[in-house]
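Lay summary

Proteins are chains of building blocks that fold into shapes. Our project writes down both the chain and a compact code for its shape. Here are two examples, one after the other.
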Amino acid sequence: AFAPDIRVNAIAPGVILTDFHARAGVTEERIKKRIQDVPLLRAGRPEEIASVAVFLASEDSSYITGQTIVVDGGLGMP
């Protein structure tokens, strides 16, 4: 193994409510339309993404590597 103590994982967020949308010119109407496609019928909160990041940085995830953790309210479900 090249680096047995190094783990690489990713977080793939869905629609997350932040002030980025307003700064990027995304209208509230467009956000509401996108949320209609989310099975949980709501946008995510930044804290929900942060908690996944904290988990991945902790020893609790020490046997997880090479994964993409999707946090999208079910949007990506087949």
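And here is the second example, written the same way.
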Amino acid sequence: MEHDGDALVARLRGEVDMTNASFIREELTSSVPNDASALVIDLSDTLYVDSAAIEVLFELSRRLGRRRQDLRLVVPAASPLRRLLTLTDVGAVAPMHESLAEALEGP
């Protein structure tokens, strides 16, 4: 994870599923400082997510929202995840952006 301005950027690679979703949720939740405006999760190199990973995204959005922080996702149009995240309505709670630069600009 790295800071970029007042946002925290996390890059997830490989697979996010029931075997690692709880760990990822705890790591991300505990890493976002109170003064951050947003958590940006870059899914550009993520190959697979299951329902546990999708639940993590919804839960992170709720937790961050209570702290008046945004959750933003980087999901390129060519990513196999784009359709799944659209069908599960993740975009309603975490805007999906084509690039990291776009996500850092804001909702």
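What can we say about the second shape? The longest helix spans residues 51-66.
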